[in-house]
Amino acid sequence: MNNEARTGFLRKLVDQVRSHEYPYEKRPKKNVNWSAYDLAQINETADMLDLIKDLVDAADARVRARHTPEKREPGRPPTSAADVAKVLLAQSYLGVSNRVAEGLLRLFWHNLGINSTFSYKTIERGYDREAVNEILDEVMLLSNVPIQGLEKTFAIDGTGTPTHMKQSYAHDRERQNRERDRGGQEAAVRDAFPRGIREYVYSVGIVGTKYKLFASFQNTLDHSKGEAAFMPMAIAQTKALHPGMEMLTGDGLHATRLACQLTEDAGAVPRFLPKRNLNFKSYRSPAWIHMLMALSRDPKSWLRDYYQREAVETANSMVVMENPYPLRKRLDVRRLTEDYLRRVDHNIRGLCYLAYVEDLKVSPKSWTTVA
After folding, report:
1. Which parts of the chain are beta strand (E)?
2. Model confidence, pTM
3. Residue 196 forms part of a structural domain
4. How far, in Å, are 64, 77, 122, 322 from residue 74 at the CA level?
5. What angle do CA 212, 216, 219 make, to 5 degrees?
6. 117 and 265, same domain (yes or no)
7. 71-118: per-residue pLDDT in tens?
């Protein structure tokens, strides 16, 4: 089969897939240990608070080990950044305001390993405190340690967290796609996030398809950017946490030659569904040709790999179900932190369940080495 015939074959195939007409055989459903899952639900809140404590303590120790102790300044010492990080994670998990979080601190201070209480203003200022954000980044890293070497396939996708109750990111993305199809104003910017009646916090995340934990997460308030702008950093972060990454899958927005080459350069196989008007011109991206050739040789196996991208959509939906309310903060920098906290909490909650369902060692106290 020459390139012209192969191009025609793939265009027809992609059109069938996008029109939901291709006879795809679905994967068999996974068996779930429901008794272990029920036990995880029963113990979720207690386990969540305990794991927040353990992860933040471990993260704080790693952060302090990287910095030289600062000279003691006169005046009242600042509240421990680790204590503030614990409260922010617990606040995000419970979905309460700053003032309610101050009250809950009196109730859960022992579970979180905090020696003193502090005011809601300290909690509020923690959302734009650099030392707190550094600890949260370290907690995100540590939340991937139990699945290192076990997670091989990853999926990438973008989404938006609303700042108003009457917003729907999925609805605005569909509207944007319709305008692009009609050649509207947004057609000129092919890779821009959709705008809504209010601002979104836009984000791009990479999720493991087996355990559905975030390996990379970045967010922004700039709607003129698109998912492709975040891909190099997202792939680099995932590769650093999971050196054994074997495959990356994503929707049509990622079906570009640059995305394929970035993925292949990281040692992974790209699986991005191409557009209907695809062609075999490489434009200095051998990875693009490799991906299309694999699709033409064995479409069913290729699509079986590609449809694992549903894992990242599932993870994003789980975050929405866990946080069914819009972002509360008004300052942009605090909105970004509030949105980030939801993903860190998602990973910690996932570990709480994996401890029962998969029998993983999820607490830093049980780890022998940490990457």
Report:
1. 153-162, 200-208, 214-220, 247-250, 269-272
2. 0.90
3. yes
4. 21, 8, 19, 43
5. 115
6. no
7. 777 777 788 999 999 999 999 999 999 999 999 998 898 899 998 788
